[in-house]
Every structure is written in C-alpha cells, then in structure tokens.
C-alpha cells in the first residue's frame, strides 16, 4: 500500500535530520494528554458516563458459590479450581486467591482468579458461569470490573435527569435534493469526503469533509440512512444530508469489521485478539447492537476456529459476515454455520429458533433468499461418492424441507440468488469419468412456482471454465463469462422463452471479450462487461434489451466498478491498494459517456450512498412511465438552462485562455524590442531582423586536422 505520510510531517522530520521511513510509528507513545494538535473522535468515548473505562482489572474474575472448607481441605479445593480454570487460559503466578475467615479459618465460598489476558477471563466467565461442581455448588462467575460497578450503585434510587428534546436533522432529507442527485463518499490520505454527483455540471459538489474521521474504513448502511466509522474504542454512526452529526456510539475495543442488518435495525461488530499462548487460536468477540438505541442485544465470544465456515478446526481465517441476515426486509432472522449445524436466531429474543440449531451433517455453505425466510444449503459428497452431494431449500421457522436436489460426481457448488428471490442458480462443478478434470453446469430453481421445478443448463461447450456469473437485478436474465483468458465468451440467458413459455433460453453469445467481471445496472437492462486489474480496465457498456454495444472505453488499471443506486451513472475506480499510479475515479453515464475524472493521491475507497426502496406503488410507476413526456418537460428545460450555463462557462474559459495568450505575445514583443541592440551586436552591426534582407556568403575555411612525422632510415 502506498505511504500515507502527511507532507508536513515529512518536512518537519527532514528539518530535524530524521529519516521518517526509519521510524516505527506504532512504537511511539505520546505523553498523557498529548494529541499533537489532532483531536480524536474517540476521545469523548472515555468521557461518557454510560461507558466504562478500562480499569486494568479486566483479566480478573470472581467465582462464587464455592464450597466452604476448613484449612486442611484448602489445598484440595484450590487444586480442583485450578484444574478447571487452567484449561481455559494461563493463570498468573499467585493469580488464584481464596479469602479465609480469620475467625473460623474456613474459606468464604468465593475466589479471585487472574489470567494473562482479558480475553481469557471473558472466556472463563462464559464457559463456567452456572457450572455444576456438585448438587449444592453451582458456580456464579462475574468479572471483577462488573462487581466493582455493582458496588457503586447507590442505596437510594433517584430518578434520572430528563434532558430537553432537541429535534435533529431529518435523516432522509438528502433524498429531497431538487436536482435528484446522489451522494458518494471517498477516502484519500487522512481525509474522508462526501460529495453530490453533479453530473449536469460535470463535476462533484463538496458536501462534507473531515480529516481523521475514521481509523480504517467507512461504510454506508443498506438504506443510506447512516455512515459508519471505525475507531479503536468502537464504531460510530453519522447521518444527515450536509452536516453529518454523530448519532450513536457502540463501545467495542479493537473493532475490525462491521455489518448492518438489511433494514438497518442492527449493527454487528467484530474483533479478534491474540492469545497469551502463541499456540492457542485467536479469540473472537462479536457484538450485535440495536442501531438506533445503541443497546447491546447479544454477544458471541469464542475461538476463531468456532467462527470459521463449517466450524472446522485449524482454520485461522474468518469468513465475513459471520452472521447472515434473512427473512426478508424486517430483520427477523440471522444465522451462522457451525460444525454440522446451522444456528438460526430470531431477533425478538435473540435466541435460537425452537431453542436448538438445525442439524445438517457436513454442511459447508448456506445462503438466505433475499426476500423470504428460506435457506439454501449445500452438503458435499460423502463416503467416496456413495452419498451424493445435495442442495436443499429449508423454510424457517418451521425448518421443513421445501425441495432437495441430489448431485453426483460433484467437485464444488456455488449458489446465486436472484434479487427478488424468484430464482436460485446453483453452479455445479462435476468430475469427468476419469476424475482428471471437471466441467460445469447450472441447476436453476424456480422458487415461486408450484413444487419449485428445477432446470439443468449446460453451456454449448461444457468444458468451458466459468469466470463470472450475475443475475439481472429484479429481472429474469443472467450473464455468464465462460472460456479461457484473455478473451473468454459472454453469454446471456433468460428464464423465459418466447410466448411466455417457462423455459431457460439463450439470448446471445459475445465472442472473445476482454472481460473478467459483470456489473448489471440496479434497474436491469444495462450491463458493463469489465476487464479489471490485469485486464487494464477495459469497459464495454451493453444494452441487453437490444443486444447491442452502446460504447467501449478504458479506465487504465481500474480495480472496481460501482453503479449509483438509480442506474443513471457509474463509477470506475483505481485504488492505491492495488495500484499506485493514477489513483482516483471516473464518472460515466449509463451508456458509456465519460462525464468527469478526479485524481486523488493515496486513494482508498469510493462508495455510493444507497437509496431506500421507492414508496411508489407499481401502478403509480407505470402511470409515470406512460406520462413521462409530461414530467420530462420540466427537466428538459432545466437541462437546457444547464447546457446554456456550461456553454457560457466554456466561452468564458476560451476568452480567459485567449487573454492569457495575448498577454504572453505582448510580453514577448516587449522583450524582443528590449533585446534589439544585443541582436544587432551579435550580427556584426546588421540592423534588420528580417531574414530576406540577409546575403548568403560561402566562406572557405582551411583546417589542419593532423600532423605526423615519420623518420626513414637507409638500410
């Protein structure tokens, strides 16, 4: 990644004779209270009454309800407790203390245990709270910090102070922009900026800029209401059209990843922590917050291996998001996969549906329908092929199986849901009879039809490698890139044939395209066939309704393509994460016209602000489409005004350039006149500057090139 050093810091280091590149910045510790003039967005997290500070006792637990024993049984009880708790983490030297009543010389029924790390203490609390030592002794485990907080609760209750209501900015006000523009956010260097996409003016209009707004990345919520930032002490949400006030904070130290539920009701935060013993797996903490209230609804803690896909041991990578949301747009369910189970939770109580996980032996992948509480599951072959692979559809909350398809000789499967939940495509890689190679086909489920019929689709050349697959949003078509690089083919299919016959059919195949990615417009109909990264940013804007290319273009070394939420404009991006040259973004019209280009050093992120679904009914949208000319007159007049304004701006620009040219010519003539005597002197007194008044003369010059002397002797 390119360096993010502030130029002023570099200059200061140079003046002090210090090579900045030799400094380990992460090892630099500032004096208490020093911020080198850069205020932190995290600072007020420490000042809030409702957020607890790190007191330094987070690695200590209190275990209550222990047996009360005399001095002679003290060592035996201590050995039992140490055996239980040393399995969870490393107990510090002298880190187990059982207080004794000085009068009776018996234990008091509780002990303190100090671990090396906070994560080990939290895990010990989670694993052993309510642990049954025997019938009479069930452990009650608390964090020492919690106990300290409980002791501070006053004996007398006092009503909380009521604060006067101050109305905030309407968080949807940005949707009422008179020019119907969309916003986007970018990160470059230490700055995060929000802009309007003013395509009519062929430039972005600044909305809000803030340096050091986040410590890693920013993320819009799915409906565009919030912008989330990530900090050492947790995550924060901001909202508005132009002011971007802070709305809520979520305490989660060392948070690394975040995710929203589809309806923005919940925010999921994730962190991982190194264990004290290098041989142990990383500790993972996942919190689920109510996004509006900031309340912690549920937390999950454990080893990183517990949260890997399939829950298989020995895997250090974690698939994100760990929890996948389902049940449509009401955020009713979320689920994660474990070893031989899929755990489905409901958000009314944040507990397992039916209080138990769905058992699925050897399940390796699952996904939700985007619109309905239906899970699709994939289970690979077992027993050397004796038990076939299968894809199943399961209804939640009843957990009844709606449809199952057995698959034979399967190497791998990947599931693709269409955005309306109408179709599910399963890409199946199968072994040939010799088992030395594979070929690919598709199983197409028609989810909304009776008995969920399934069609099998094979490419014309079934040995073609599948490079990319993408459904048309809200539509019935899909595109496939298949074949060999660098010029594979691209085929388009429809789930409908002519005369409304329900059967998959091929629309066309485009031969030899330099593309490795597909990007449908959010409204369907248009698609960009993109050759990203090593394909040098080749772009083809294609109209699938007409089956024709609208434009071809190039954004050299483009790494990402993002449509705006309306499908009117599209951004192509070059980030410094992948390429250090010409970082920035281009904004194009849907049909491939380059509108403007912005270059930014150390450019990391571009993201359009999502829009919520339209409140218009389908009938109202059809009425608008029929009377589009009536509505478009207003906007055509505005476009004409903008066009005249741009023409006037172009004239002003040309006039300014001409004035600059005239000034330069005038300065040149003045200088030419001032140097006239000098030129006359160089021409041996000739006065005229006109070339035709000169006389050409031939001058012969003899030049001695070399002299050598040779002595001859008489033999």
UniProtKB/TrEMBL annotation:
One GO process term, biological-process aspect: formation of cytoplasmic translation initiation complex
Protein's cellular compartments: Cytoplasm
SMART domains documented for this protein: RRM
RNA-binding as UniProt keyword: yes
Domain RRM positions: 59-146
Predominant place of localization: cytoplasm
Keyword annotations of the record: Cytoplasm, Initiation factor, Protein biosynthesis, RNA-binding
Presence of the UniProt keyword RNA-binding in the record: yes
Residue stretches in coiled coil: none
A GO term from the CC aspect: eukaryotic 48S preinitiation complex
Single GO molecular function: translation initiation factor activity
One of the Pfam families matching this protein, by short name: RRM_1
Oligomer and partners: Component of the eukaryotic translation initiation factor 3 (eIF-3) complex.
Alphabetized HAMAP family for the sequence: eIF3b
Matches recorded under PANTHER family: EUKARYOTIC TRANSLATION INITIATION FACTOR 3 EIF3 -RELATED (PTHR14068), EUKARYOTIC TRANSLATION INITIATION FACTOR 3 SUBUNIT B (PTHR14068:SF0)
UniProt function note: RNA-binding component of the eukaryotic translation initiation factor 3 (eIF-3) complex, which is involved in protein synthesis of a specialized repertoire of mRNAs and, together with other initiation factors, stimulates binding of mRNA and methionyl-tRNAi to the 40S ribosome. The eIF-3 complex specifically targets and initiates translation of a subset of mRNAs involved in cell proliferation. Component of the eukaryotic translation initiation factor 3 (eIF-3) complex, which is involved in protein synthesis and, together with other initiation factors, stimulates binding of mRNA and methionyl-tRNAi to the 40S ribosome.
Family: Belongs to the eIF-3 subunit B family.
Name of this chain's protein: Eukaryotic translation initiation factor 3 subunit B
Species per Swiss-Prot/TrEMBL record: Trapa incisa
Higher taxonomy: Eukaryota, Viridiplantae, Streptophyta, Embryophyta, Tracheophyta
